[in-house]
């Protein structure tokens, strides 16, 4: 064992227990969400538990090595992740009109998911010295981080997986903001940020993606397609009322009114069955988890740890917020999983790797 | 450019504060939105979720009708009440299941079994529990509906066979598709609860008879009750079959076979069209269509009389003396004897170390071929058989088509057996003995033929070497009356023999019925000359018990211009002359009575 006993005592049990509660809620919710499937819940729950177990092993491995050592190797991880994403584009499996998965020994893996925490460490490693020096980032300073973000972003959006792409870009921008930007850099980023939606709409977005945006603005724009599903999702959550219909008693998802109700639309199952009250509890659990990550960032021993923890906090926050907003028609439909709750092995592992990194930062806040 | 360094920790703290505020703001927005849809609009949403549930219901297509040649109904569909359970709508499993079991005649276990089979389907999928429930049961269920959540009754078409046990082997039956069949990929487009043709014509013409089910998109409320129909795709009924069967002849024979066992088939000589086909004992195909009970199924499958066997095409029997026709054709055809060649019959034929008997104890005296056929002299054919040898008999059987199935459009036809030296060597590894030839020449020993094969033998003589594939279905007609498929006669054999051969054999067969010493003289008709041959075949019996002889009669009519050929077998019926031949008389009488009327009608039309 390389791990120091004193470090074990510094493990952040608050974050661990908070995460375990979210995971437990996720498993029970998934049991209900998949109970109406032809194949039954069993295989879904099994896969989710297996992913979780692998995630625990990964956390165990991650916390053994100082995050500074891990960050030193971040270039390698980044290169590997890029290679896998490229591989997906070449030999990936088609599912639902997109190439997002590759098959490794019979297990489908979604490499774009793993890019999220890897990019966080990669950028943290690139920027922590500047942050320590209190140096606000100039345009030249952000060019390399932006390039490091845009390469995977473009590759991922090409799959197409707009949701993961958006999370990656927003997380990177948050990290840059966290490190500190010069006013001129702000101005440029805001300017580009204002133009990009128009360019995207005009040249980049696919018709179905535009349809999603349109039916978000006007829910009746596509009454049989996205609008219909958005309506059914609202009906699902809304019909939960204050106390919910009760566990396993949700009818909207069981009658297959809501597509992807075990992955991206998982919140509709929870909202329908646990109601307003349950949803608030779930929100508070997420808020508590994110705040804890921020606290770890604040108390980190160095700027590297700070940026890593902050990046993870941002990533989880963005996924949580966008996913829930999408389910209750506050955001257009994009494929973003709800951390800990959505079904999906790669997503589960990504969340756990990220948690592992934060735990790593936390347990090394005092230097020996 | 800022040229002063801010207090780093303050700036840091401000950033964290912003993050926290953003997080809190997000949560507040989410909560406001949830308040809006779950609390403010919650009741409306709940209503929508309960009322707005759309389901797709199957509308069962009626199966195609089956008519006889003249358009008389032989199988149709009628509305029936089928009871379903929608598992999802059950509130209390025991209340619904026990309540149902108490209310109508069905076992609790049966209900649970049916639901288990459907466990792979979504719980909103209706599971058929009982088909064709009575009006009384419908009334009981409707009256107790509120105590039976999940139970629904649907009116669906059900296959109906108005003649019940009659024609069951020909028409066949339909029954619900099984779980295993659903998994079978070759059966596409079937779903749970569908009926599928299992036997007879229902099976052979399944793709034509089966219609295309429709669909009804219905909105159902939280109780699973229909609120309104959104869209209906009408079902398309199956195609109708018009058979070659003459229902008058068929029903007359059915009556003649009452309380008898056996099979009978009548063919149009010039086309192979099947006029009538009977097998007894029979079963009631209606029982299968409404979901046969376990007891009924057990009773049918374990019945020692094998009611599910179609004796006309699957029953193999020794042909007895009817086989002499084949022997006679071969020996004349090969020129081994002529019309005048005589053999002396003293009631027995010593061969090897045993004596083969003639059925007539005192003997027939000196017999030529005409009397040999007419009076069915065994000794004459023992002599003839020995002259031929087994392989020539086998060759002739092959030429007549008796070594193959006839190819009738019914599933499961069985092949007959006519032995040869090669066959015996192959099967038993033993050489053939001449003594066996003696037996085979009169249709005993290792000769096994089905009634339909012997009907073909009769047609072979009638048509002078030409036989056709027996065909039950005449044409397939769509619901709109468009003919989809017709069946041209398919030639099975076309054997050239000397005219003389057929003349001599036909005269012999005519003598059987129309000359006073003929074996079937009692079955003659005054105006139509029937040609026939009796057979009284020794049966093997069952478990060493001798149950008597099988009675055979093969025939065609009229002698001059044969238009109908037939074979009749009465299992353990005794003598061919007394048991089987009268049926041929009945068939011919009924068939030509019809004909005469049609002819008269035409004459009237022409006037």
What is the strand tally of chain B? 23
The number of domains of chain A is 1
The Rg value of chain A, from CA coordinates, equals 20 Å
Q: SSE order of chain A in H/E notation?
A: HHHHHEEEHHHHHHHHHH
Count of discrete alpha- or pi-helical segments spanning 4 or more residues of chain A: 15
- What CATH calls the topology of the largest domain in chain B is Beta-lactamase
> Kindly state the mean pLDDT of chain A as a whole number?
89
Average pLDDT number of chain B: 87
Q: Low-confidence spans of chain A: pLDDT under 50, at least 5 residues?
A: none
Shape of chain A: globular
Rg from alpha-carbon coordinates of chain B: 35 Å
Shape of chain B: elongated
Written account of the structure:
- The complex is a heterodimer of chains A (368) and B (607).
- Chain A has 368 residues and is mainly alpha-helical.
- The two termini of chain A are 18 Å apart.
- In chain A, 71% of the residues lie in helices and 4% in strands.
- The longest helix of chain A is centred in the C-terminal third of the chain and has 34 residues, at 266-299.
- Chain B has two domains: 54-241, Penicillin-binding protein 2a (Domain 2) (Alpha-Beta Complex), CATH 3.90.1310.10; 247-301 and 311-604, Beta-lactamase (3-Layer(aba) Sandwich).
- Helix content of chain B is 38%, strand content 21%.
- Chain B has 22 helices and 23 strands.
């Amino acid at each position: 064992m390389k791990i120091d006993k004193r470090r074990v005592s510094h493990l952040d049990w608050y974050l661990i227990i908070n995460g375990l509660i979210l995971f437990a809620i996720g498993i029970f919710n998934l049991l209900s969400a998949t109970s109406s499937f032809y194949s039954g819940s069993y295989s879904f729950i099994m896969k989710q538990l297996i992913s979780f177990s692998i995630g625990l092993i990964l956390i165990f491995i991650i916390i053994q090595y100082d995050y500074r050592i891990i960050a030193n190797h971040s270039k390698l991880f980044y290169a590997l992740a890029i290679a896998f994403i490229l591989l997906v584009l070449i030999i990936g499996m088609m599912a639902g009109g997109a190439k997002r998965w590759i098959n490794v020994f019979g297990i489908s893996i979604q490499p774009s998911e793993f890019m999220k925490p890897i990019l966080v460490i990669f950028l943290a490693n690139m920027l922590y010295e500047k942050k320590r020096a209190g140096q606000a980032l100039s345009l030249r300073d952000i060019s390399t981080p932006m390039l490091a973000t845009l390469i995977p972003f473009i590759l991922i959006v090409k799959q197409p997986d707009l949701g993961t792409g958006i999370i990656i870009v927003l997380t990177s921008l948050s990290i840059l903001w966290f490190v500190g930007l010069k006013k001129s850099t702000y101005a440029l980023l805001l300017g580009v940020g204002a133009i990009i939606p128009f360019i995207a709409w005009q040249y980049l977005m696919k018709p179905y993606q535009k349809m999603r945006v349109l039916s978000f603005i006007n829910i009746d724009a596509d009454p049989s397609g996205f609008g219909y599903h958005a309506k059914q999702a609202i009906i699902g959550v809304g019909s939960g009322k204050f106390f919910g219909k009760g566990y396993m008693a949700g009818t909207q998802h069981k009658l297959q009114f809501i597509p992807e109700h075990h992955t991206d639309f998982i919140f509709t199952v929870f909202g329908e069955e646990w109601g307003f009250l349950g949803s608030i509890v779930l929100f508070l659990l997420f808020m508590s988890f994110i705040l804890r990550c921020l606290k770890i960032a604040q108390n980190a021993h160095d700027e590297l740890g700070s940026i890593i923890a902050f990046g993870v906090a941002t990533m989880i926050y963005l996924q949580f917020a966008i996913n829930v907003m999408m389910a209750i028609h506050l955001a257009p439909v994009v494929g973003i999983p709800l951390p800990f709750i959505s079904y999906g092995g790669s997503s589960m592992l990504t969340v756990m790797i990220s948690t592992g990194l934060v735990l790593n930062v936390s347990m090394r806040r005092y230097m020996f | 450019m800022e040229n002063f360094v801010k207090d780093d920790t303050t700036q840091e703290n401000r950033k964290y504060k912003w993050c926290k505020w953003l997080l809190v703001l997000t949560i507040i927005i989410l909560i406001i939105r949830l308040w809006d849809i779950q609390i403010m609009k919650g009741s409306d949403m709940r209503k929508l979720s309960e009322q707005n549930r759309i389901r797709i219901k199957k509308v069962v297509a009626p199966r195609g009708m089956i008519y006889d040649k003249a358009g008389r109904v032989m199988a149709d569909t009628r509305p029936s009440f089928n009871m379903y359970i929608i598992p999802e709508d059950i509130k209390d499993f025991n209340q619904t299941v026990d309540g149902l079991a108490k209310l109508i005649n069905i076992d609790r276990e049966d209900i649970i079994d049916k639901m288990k089979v459907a466990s792979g389907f979504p719980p909103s999928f209706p599971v058929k529990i009982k088909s064709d429930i009575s009006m009384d049961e419908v009334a009981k269920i409707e009256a107790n509906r509120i105590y039976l959540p999940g139970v629904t009754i649907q009116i669906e078409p059900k296959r109906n066979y108005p003649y019940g046990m009659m024609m069951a082997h020909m028409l066949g039956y339909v029954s619900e598709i099984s779980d295993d069949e659903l998994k079978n990929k070759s059966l596409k487009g079937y779903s749970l609860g569908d009926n599928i043709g299992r036997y007879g014509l229902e099976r052979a013409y399944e793709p034509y008879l089966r219609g295309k089910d429709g669909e009804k998109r219905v909105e159902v409320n939280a109780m699973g009750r229909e609120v309104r129909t959104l869209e209906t795709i009408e079902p398309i009924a199956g195609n109708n079959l018009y058979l070659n069967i003459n229902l008058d002849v068929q029903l007359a024979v059915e009556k003649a076979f009452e309380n008898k066992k056996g099979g009978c088939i009548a063919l149009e000589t010039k086309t192979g069209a099947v006029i009538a086909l009977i097998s007894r004992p029979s079963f009631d195909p209606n029982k299968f269509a409404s979901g046969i009970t376990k007891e009924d199924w057990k009773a049918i499958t374990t019945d020692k009389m094998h009611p599910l066997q179609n004796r006309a095409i699957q029953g193999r029997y020794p042909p007895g003396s009817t086989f002499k026709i084949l022997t006679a054709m071969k020996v004349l055809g090969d020129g081994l004897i002529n019309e005048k060649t005589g053999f002396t019959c003293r009631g027995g034929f010593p061969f090897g170390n045993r004596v083969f008997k003639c059925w007539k104890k005192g003997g027939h005296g000196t017999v030529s071929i005409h009397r040999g056929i007419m009076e069915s002299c065994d000794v004459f054919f023992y002599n003839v058989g020995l002259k031929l040898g087994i392989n020539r008999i086998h060759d002739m059987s092959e030429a007549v088509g008796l070594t193959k199935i006839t190819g009738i459009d019914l599933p499961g036809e069985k092949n007959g057996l006519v032995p040869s030296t090669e066959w015996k060597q192959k099967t038993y590894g033993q050489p053939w003995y001449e003594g066996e030839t003696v037996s085979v020449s009169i249709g005993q020993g290792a000769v096994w033929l089905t009634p339909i094969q012997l009907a073909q033998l009769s047609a072979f003589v009638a048509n002078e070497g030409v036989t056709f594939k027996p065909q039950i279905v005449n044409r397939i007609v769509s619901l709109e009356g468009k003919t989809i498929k017709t069946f041209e006669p398919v030639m099975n054999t076309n054997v050239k023999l000397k005219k003389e051969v057929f003349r001599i054999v036909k005269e012999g067969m005519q003598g059987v019925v129309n000359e006073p010493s003929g074996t079937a003289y009692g079955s003659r008709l005054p105006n139509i000359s029937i040609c026939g041959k009796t057979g009284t075949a020794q049966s093997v019996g069952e478990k060493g018990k001798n149950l008597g002889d099988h009675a055979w009669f093969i025939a065609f009519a009229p002698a001059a211009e044969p238009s109908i050929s037939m074979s009749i077998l009465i299992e353990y019926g005794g003598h061919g002359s007394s048991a089987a031949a009268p049926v041929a008389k009945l068939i011919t009488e009924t068939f030509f009575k019809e004909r005469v009327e049609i002819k008269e009608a035409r004459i009237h039309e022409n006037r």
